[in-house]
Design a protein that fits this description.
Strand content of chain A: under 5%
Keywords (chains A, B): Ion channel, Ion transport, Membrane, Transmembrane, Transmembrane helix, Transport
Distance between the termini of chain A: 87 Å
Largest sheet of chain A: none
Main location (chains A, B): membrane
Family (chains A, B): Belongs to the aromatic acid exporter (TC 2.A.85) family.
Oligomer: homodimer
Number of strands of chain A: 0
InterPro entries (chains A, B): ALMT
CATH architecture of the largest domain in chain A: Up-down Bundle
Largest interface: A-B, 79 and 79 residues
Order of helices and strands of chain A: HHHHHHHHHHHHHHHHHH
Helix content of chain A: over 70%
CATH class of the largest domain in chain A: Mainly Alpha
Shape of chain A: extended
Structural class of chain A: mainly alpha
Pfam family, one (chains A, B): ALMT
Number of domains of chain A: 4
CATH topology of the largest domain in chain A: Methane Monooxygenase Hydroxylase, Chain G, domain 1
Chain lengths: ~475, ~475
């Protein structure tokens, strides 16, 4: 047993040790945090640019405040321009434009209404004035707050409705102390227009981040993720139980997971993209809805891929005989669907029409037919049903994926025409087609190498005549 | 051919007709909009209450502005209290508290920093002052804007970081015109505390909406949706191709779709719920993460349910013989998993421990074993593999669902202990258990009817000893 004295010394030592190690621990935390910030910047350098843009715009607008003539005109209200930049400037052009327009329009309408409310209230004068204004405020605030729950309003005008309440309250309530409400409303409108325009101009002119492009790329990435999974899946499924190859990188088997839950982010992006003006090859009314359609089909394909993934981990193993017979057609479907999806992704990314995906879709459909006939053929009678199930289930899901890929290809085709994708320089000859169909299992780049530049033109329609779409 | 005169008259008529019908069309639009609002209120009357609460709080706080003594102390800054209410008051307590605390803390820290920046700048004086302040503003705004990209920061402190930039700029920039920065910072802090506290108090005291309760209910609803699907699925699958019964209501087959994309909304709710104080049976540190875990497992089950749904629409039909042999065990798994999920949902909803789900989980596991042996048994040799596939695939997915249900039950059990669910008055006797296991296909309410209130106590542990968990 320690004496009380020794105990106290022990406690002191612990406290002392903690205090001694505290600066070191704090330093570690700071270093860790800094590293996380560095990583964040490396992941997407546009974030750094955005931060600098925000800082500069705020400073630029705050210069108004320092200039005597501007300050004499606007007074303390000049600060609103600075505050507007802070709340309006978002990462993407779409979001900034959406907030800016919402803020300006809401200020205009609410300012006018506020002035009107003040006029009505002053007719009464005395104690009646604040009462009438309070009644107006309760009514307007409650109704507009309720309107914010409407899904359509929430998606596009949520910020505007909040700004509407804010400006209305600001103008009508402060009219009690300052009779010159029109002047106040105008000053507020001017400063907010200055702040919003500064943000929008800075956002568009200096290294702009178009949310429409991000949506465009995300849809392509999602298709690529599904393609990557399917590319490696068949090898993984038909080999893994023979030999255990856990050492190789299998990250491609997990990439598709983000596709499954991408719905809300895609919808949000499409909502914001609608605010964006024409940029690059994206028009003002670019068919964003069609992107959502492709996204939805990709997710449905993702659910099937999730089922396939489940069979990788499943305990039930298919007997070797069954595996061997299923392997070829299954691999073919998987690889061809993968190529089709990757080509579709590249079609979207490059915004060029391409007939290559159709070939792979046709190949994968053909492989599905082949698989059907393999399954319909005679099987040795001593195979029991239970053992066949996992393999059969994988085969069945793969057949569905072939159908799903075709649907995605159709949606992308629709997107191509809606978004006016360019027709590329003709590069694939009918001979190449035949080759691809015959050696469908090879990579998509094989026939790119065998391209005959001098070959006669072969448009999409002639090429895809073999494909039912 | 019409003469130009007749043409003009025709055009005039069309314009006149349009003008005549315009008020009617406008009225239609207004009525439609009003109906949509009424529907919105009926769906969730808490929305109406929230809107009225917001309106009243704004008016209450604006009364400060009308009172001479308060106005004399705060001046125009009193308006900030009103604006704070508008931007802080959210639908749920969690969101309001989160925004309120973020706003107050950010104002405190940024106000102090702003005053400090002003002190440093005034040391230089003259043209140096705005330059030093501008440098500070660029630096602080850029760094804090960049920090907003950190996922952890974004989830909980996004609004606070924005408010930090806002207050810092407000204080430091306006210090150029008004040397009494400390006074300004204090006024801002005071008004923001008043506005935030008014919002939080109103939000908590008058018919509060706890986002934690919403999350709690949503997780339960998700399990119910999956349960409803599985309840009707087997009947639907094994009957639909025999007779075409499209006339009955099949909405239960679609309800689960919302489960698939619920991830972001659940995560958001969990983030907001962490701000909420103790309320009802929810503690301050309620295990919200465990809800997310149950939600993730429910989604995984949802993906399998999506696969099952696919087989309903699939063209390939299993031959009658196969169907008949698979029907019983498949129906059993489906119904028992359904009951287990629904009982788990009710366990969560009522926050009471229950051993009933375990029974159904055990039953569904037993049925899965039964299905396995049916599949392993001899099948007539003239059944071809291709025809068996859809049925076999459904069987295989159902077996996975049995496993998945067990995992969900385990996660809910963990939740029960983490969230201190109550132990209910003992209601199920070991005899009842036996009965449930024997007549597992009957509804969960059967043994509720046979409850023997006078039966000896039987805790969860003894009951669930037969179940592997």
């Amino acid at each position: 047993m320690e004496s009380p004295n020794e105990e106290r010394t022990g406690a002191c030592r612990r406290v002392w040790r903690w205090l001694k190690s505290f600066p070191e621990k704090l330093w570690q935390k700071i270093v860790e945090f800094a590293w996380r910030l560095v990583k964040l910047g490396k992941e997407d350098p546009r974030r750094i640019v955005h931060s600098i843009k925000v800082g500069l715009t705020i400073t630029l607008v705050s210069i108004f405040y320092y200039f005597e003539p501007v300050y004499d005109g606007l007074g303390d209200c000049a600060m609103w321009a600075v505050l507007t930049v802070i709340v309006v400037f978002e990462f993407s052009v779409g979001a900034t434009l959406g907030r800016g327009l919402n803020r300006m329009l809401a200020t205009l309408v609410a300012g006018a209404l506020g002035v009107g409310a003040h006029r009505i209230a002053t007719q009464l004068g005395g104690i009646g004035e604040p009462i009438v204004i309070s009644v107006f405020v309760v009514l307007i605030a409650a109704i507009v707050t309720f309107m914010r729950f409407l899904p359509k309003m929430k998606a596009r005008y949520d910020y505007g409705l909040m700004m509407f309440i804010l400006t209305f309250c600001l103008i009508s309530v402060s009219s009690y102390r300052d009779d010159d409400t029109i002047h106040l409303a105008l000053k507020r409108l001017t400063t907010i227009i200055v702040g919003s325009c500064a943000s929008v101009i800075m956002c568009i002119c200096v290294w702009p981040v178009w949310i429409g492009v991000d949506l465009h790329n995300q849809i392509a990435t999602n298709l690529e993720m599904l393609g990557s999974f399917l590319e490696g899946y068949a090898d993984e499924y038909f080999k893994v139980s023979d030999e255990d190859g856990n050492s190789i990188d299998k990250s491609f088997l997990e990439g598709y997971k983000s596709v499954l839950t991408s719905k809300p982010s895609e919808e949000n992006m499409a909502n914001l993209a609608r605010w964006e003006p024409r940029h690059g090859r994206f028009r003002y009314r670019h068919p964003w809805k069609q992107y959502l359609k492709v996204g939805t089909l990709a997710r449905q394909c993702g659910y099937k891929v999730e089922a396939l993934h489940g069979y990788l981990l499943s305990e039930m193993q298919t007997p070797l005989e069954v595996r061997n017979r299923l392997m070829e057609p299954c691999t073919m479907i998987s690889k061809e669907s993968s190529k089709a999806l990757k080509e579709l992704a590249s079609t979207i990314r490059k915004m060029t029409k391409s007939s290559v995906p159709d070939l792979h879709v046709a190949n994968s459909k053909a492989a599905a037919e082949n698989l059907k006939s393999v399954l319909k053929s005679d099987w040795s009678k001593d195979v029991d049903l239970f053992e066949i199930i996992p393999g059969a289930a994988v085969a069945s899901v793969l057949m569905e994926i072939a159908t799903c890929t075709q649907q995605i290809a159709e949606a992308v085709l629709e997107l191509e025409s809606l978004a006016n994708f360019k027709r590329p320089k003709p590069r694939v000859t009918p001979e190449d087609h035949l080759q691809v169909i015959q050696h469908g299992i090879n990579g998509p780049h094989d026939h790119v190498i065998t391209i005959d530049e001098s070959s006669p033109t072969s448009g999409r329609n002639e090429n895809s005549s073999t494909i039912t779409r």
